[in-house]
Design brief:
This protein is α/β, with parallel strands linked by helices. The chain folds into two domains: about 50 residues, no CATH class; about 80 residues, Ribosomal Protein L15, Chain: K, domain 2, CATH 3.100.10. About 15% of the residues lie in helices and about 15% in strands. It is built from four helices and six strands; from the N terminus they run αββαβββαβα. The strands form two sheets. It has a three-stranded parallel β-sheet. A three-stranded parallel β-sheet has the order 2-4-6. The longest helix has 9 residues. It is elongated. The termini are far apart.
Length: about 150
């Protein structure tokens, strides 16, 4: 077989439909577009999201997409295991956590979670503590207090 003998299989190639070339062609007059209406006109394309003039789903959805809770309090999370950087007996507050680079900003409320182990007695004064974190701090001989802060009142 030579390259000049290659041909597509029968029925694979079709002639282009030449519409609007007279009544004898079989595709004259309305040129396969039917009679009148938006789809018969030039430029009469309708986008897939068009719903016939009804307010489109795209525009209706944002109102159904939940809401933003304006009273939400964001917490900086610190695990109990990270508190081992402090000397025994230290009073751990937001300012101390910022100095130790455990949180980035003193403005955020702080929550202590129970991941890790603590092996020294500390006095922890933060906005929130998980129950398990409180138990671990007290088991190590420390004290855990929740304080009402300015960040919470905002």
């Amino acid at each position: 077989m030579r390259q000049n003998e290659l041909a597509p299989p029968r029925g694979a190639k079709h002639n282009r439909k030449r519409v609007g070339r007279g009544l004898g062609s079989g595709h004259g007059r309305y040129s396969t577009r039917g009679s009148k209406g938006q789809k018969a006109r030039s430029g009469g394309k309708i986008p897939p999201y068009f719903e016939g003039g009804q307010l489109p789903l795209v525009k209706r959805l944002p109102s159904k997409r939940g809401f933003t809770n304006i009273f939400k309090v964001e917490y900086a999370i610190v695990n109990v295991g990270k508190l081992n950087v402090f000397e025994p007996g230290t009073i751990v507050t937001r300012k101390e956590l910022v100095k130790a680079r455990l949180i980035k900003s003193p403005k955020l409320a702080v929550k202590i979670l129970a991941d890790g182990e603590i092996n020294r007695p500390l006095v922890v004064k933060v906005d929130k503590l998980s129950a398990a974190a409180r138990e671990k701090i007290e088991a190590a001989g420390g004290k855990a207090e929740e304080i009402r802060s300015a960040a919470k009142a905002d």
